[in-house]
Amino acid sequence: MYHDDNQPPYRCHEVSIYDLFSPIQHHVSRVTLVESNVYEQRLFCWKLLYDWSTQAMVTCPFYVHKFTVVIYLDCLQLSLDMTSLNHFLQHRPGGNQYPLTILDGGTGTELIRMGFTNIDDDPLFSAKLLSTNPEAIKEVHKRFYKAGSDIVVTATYQASIEGLQKYIEITSQEAYDLIKKGVLLAKQAAQEVQSECPDRKLLLVAGSVGPYGACLHDGSEYRGDYMGKISIDDLKAWHQPRIKLLMEAGVDLLAIETIPCLAEALAIIDIMNDIPGCRGWITFSCKDGKHTCSGDNFSESINQVMMSKCVVAAGLNCTSPIYVTDLLDTLRPYSVVKPIIVKPNSGEMWDTSHKWHGGVKNVSELAKVWVKNGASWLGGCCRVYPEDITKLKSAVMNL
Ligand SMILES: [Zn+2]
Question: Which of this chain's residues are annotated to bind Zn(2+) (predicted)?
Fold first, then answer.
């Protein structure tokens, strides 16, 4: 109806006015839009008002990203955050307490399988390809979306400003631009998959934030033993620029992942608290069925981070599948108030002869148990490929 021909055709977000306002319909006196200079968003709001008065359904022809609608309730005023994340959280299919959401698998290991084997030993890991082969990163994101992922994670896990400057000898501005490019590639992948597959409407982008240890390139990200060597203030100063940049570049949420210890998670939450609208998930790497990789109690860590209003979901990633059921069991005594994330790796071990061995073959079967034990956001990590995500999705969606 008010589709702008200059806009890309991927914008097909549907918003029901009843979903938005029906609980308070008798008190709505005025609806208006603030903090937006975007013409089509203002147009949408006018249409919203008109259709409110005529009780019609509203279809929003553009991809809602971030804007705020203020509803005037007689003399009260409420702000409604109409981000795509909010819309996503409210419109997931399924009847569980927290509807199932499918995340992606290992971006880096899929790139390695595509032939980019040199990133395995690179201090920037998959972020190296942001400068050399950005199309390959976009292709991996598309593979995961097509495999069934609702949310993919940007290739910025090891992309700190400092690391990018050091290892590819670029200026800080160029490093900033590369991190933003990581977001753009994932957003382009979502848009291209949406135009190829019109039934895939709600595809989100999470900005990957790895732990400080990942930049040290000495395996300490899986031990967390750097925490005694860096002050919390220095840790926050290291994390803050990337988090701010990812938010500015328009990610729907952050993926704070492979965090070995609670103290680093809490430092990151402090940073998020200072950035308006900043939200994300936090996943810990775990070394057994009870502890994060640094030895913190997993269940206490989850409960602490879930208390933050910035955290929309929490759980584990890059952890062997053999520990997941026990880790979920530790959460049973608590009334967990947000979705629990399970993103294990393949369980394979890298041995001294430089070969992968072992691994858990029946992850999809295990995933059914994990869902029964409370997990609702599921995906994978290292050496979990798009076809594994498809298998996982069909296993848990048919429960
Ligand atoms: Zn991993």
Answer: 318, 381-382
Within a domain: 10: no
Tell whether 381 is in a known binding site: yes
Same domain, 363 and 331: yes
> Is position 382 annotated in a ligand binding site?
yes
How many angstroms separate the alpha carbon of residue 320 from the centre of ligand 1? 9
- State the total domains in the chain: 2
166 lies in some domain: yes
Compute, in degrees rounded to 10, the torsion defined by CA atoms 277, 278, 280, 283: -150
Compute the distance from residue 233 Cα to the ligand 1 centre, in Å: 27
Residues 314, 188: one domain? yes
User: How many whole angstroms separate alpha carbon 85 and alpha carbon 201?
Assistant: 13
> Exposed, middle or buried by CB within 10 Å (0-12, 13-18, 19+), for 355?
exposed
Expressed in angstroms and rounded, the spacing between residue 116 Cα and the centre of ligand 1 is: 17
45: containing domain: 17-82
Cα 318 to ligand 1 centroid, rounded to whole Å: 4
Whether 22 and 110 share a structural domain: no
Tokens 């977000």, residue located: 13
Distance from the CA of 284 to the center of ligand 1, in angstroms?
11
* 359-383 confidence digits (pLDDT tens): 887 888 999 999 999 999 999 999 9
Q: What does the alpha-carbon distance between residue 43 and residue 60 come to, in Å, rounded to a whole number?
A: 10
| pTM > 0.90 | no
Looking at this protein, which amino acid is placed at residue 346?
Answer: S
Ligand 1 centroid to Cα of residue 345, in Å, is 5
Identify the H or E element spanning 258: strand 253-259
Work out the burial of residue 39: count CB atoms within 10 Å of its CB; fewer than 13 is exposed, 13-18 middle, 19 or more buried: exposed
CATH no. for residue 288?
3.20.20.330
The verdict on 265 and 303 lying in the same domain is: yes
Same domain, 136 and 72: no
- Do 31 and 140 lie in one domain? The reply is no
Nearest in space to 281 (alpha carbons), one of 245, 307, 253 = 253
As beta bridge partners, residue 297 has: 291
Residues 182 and 320 in one domain: yes
Could you read off the pLDDT of 184-231 as tens digits, one per residue?
999 999 999 988 988 887 889 999 999 999 888 888 888 999 998 999
Q: Looking at the structure, do residues 299 and 206 belong to the same domain, yes or no?
A: yes
